Amino acid sequence: MPSPLNWRQRALAAQAIAREAGLMANARFHDRSFSIKFKGRQDFVTEVDVEVEKLIERRMHEAFPEDGFVGEEGEGRAPKDGAPTWVIDPIDGTANFARGTPHYCVSIACVLGQSIEIGAIYNPSLDELFFARKGEGAELNGAAMHVSGATDLSACSIEVGWNARGGADHYLGLMRRIIETGASAARGGSGALGLAYVAAGRRDGYVETIIHPWDCLAALVMITEAGGYVSDFLSGRDLRKGGPLIAAAPGVKDALIKAAALDGVVL
Prior knowledge:
The chain is an alpha+beta fold.
């Protein structure tokens, strides 16, 4: 198992590489030097996604050759000798990126077994680096992050993540249940940033019927370290399989779980 010194090195590397990758993506965002393709309905991909993922994988392999790697766009590799695995979304919010909307990020998580040890999310448009190391708190640009003190859903802003896999009726049913509590339902188009905003107290909760690990793992450790609640996303799940997710400020946890009524979520 990696030593504490190596965890420190990994934490520093995650932040530096997230920033480097984000700045690379941001340059392409502004010069618009890319083409747009689709992996499915409303499932955007650009060559920048692939290029940024390759940069991150190369940097991680140079620094930690024993570590595994799982990225949204590539095949990845398995870890060696009990080393951790990096789980990467090179551009979360690709539809925003492709359309010229400055709400996207680089998301990097480091996972050992069922434990998320490190999370780094960089939003280059606002130069915001969200970071957490398990057991050491969460921070935004070096300042401590805390979830909101909300206690009433009717005064809350809840992000309701969209995906096409559950179908329109499933999503609209979830949205309706959230709105019926009196909460303001939001959708920013980046699950990683939406969850990071829960850690920072900008949102009071987040729900989604099916979300991929690379979209959420980095933020989940941030929310926990910032004092919030997250459902047990990794329980019995490999690092390429998506599932339902609930995250919330502790004061509205129970109410949000009840309202969301998500099938298959592990509380």
